[in-house]
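seq as requested:
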Amino acid sequence: MNFWKGIINEYRAFMPVSDKTEIITLNEGNTPLIHAKKVSEYVGFNVYLKYEGLNPTGSFKDRGMTMAITNALENGSTSVICASTGNTSAAMAAYASRCNMKSFLLIPDGYVALGKIAQAMIHGSKVIKIKGNFDRALEIVIDISKKYPIALVNSVNPFRIEGQKSAAFEVSEQLGKAPDFLCIPVGNAGNITAYWKGFKEFKALNKIETLPSMCGFQAEGSAPIVKGYKIDNPETIATAIRIGNPASWKFATEAIEESNGYINSVTDEEILKAYTFLAQNEGVFCEPASASSVAGLMKYYKNFKYTKDSVAVCVLTGHGLKDPSTAIAQTQEIGEAVEANMELIAEKILG
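struct tokens:
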């Protein structure tokens, strides 16, 4: 019986490892590509959801972290550090615990989804809250990693990109070709960079014939790439992409330009509408930031050059259970308990 052994083992020829490298894995990757029937009907062509929330820690970050931690261990590191609004920290802490590394996390003061920080804490990461936003936290951990023997595992670490590109391989294999459009949330911009790298590598080896147009979507209150300037105080309910100065800004711009792609922003209201739509019409529960890919497609698809046979893949970067409070806020209250009486309950059900 063949078992899935994680993205490094599956795509070893594409990864910067040797035969002697000890692979630190939680069997990440191999996530489903789900046909989105209702979204497809709305836009008039085929749409699929790459559901990265089914990675081991609940987000796409596991793809990059297996590679970053593997490399850190190979280079003799005994501790790692990151700045995070949640998903990176959960992945870092889990993979670090896998090989008995110490992990340190800087989080920005203000709203960060507790579901994500809880993961980092239970895996043993030391959490430090700073009076500042994510961008300031990232500056600090970069400085610390340069001055002290602590490996930085944020997306500025190039090995993160190497791991994350595996999702492009999977999408290509699952479809049997590259999609026409790859729609993706953009925060720190490492993921759009990684997907583009992956598609280009697959095409270079003739595993796919064409390349997709890369379509990135930022939250309106946190859209530095769209607006063309750094946002000092980014604000959005989609905390995973609440970043005002993306570390991979340059590479994301190159991916969009090289692929004849598209980038724009969506409002928090549009993100939450898509978030609820996916849960109630497609049966897929993602975190709010993830829904920006679908919100962007549904808002701007008429700007794409498409036909009824076109294929779009929307990347859903994290699971909805990362941020249960937002889900609860979008639904009706359960209300007071009623007597355990069949007739009374039937009346409430049937109206």
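The mean pLDDT is 94.
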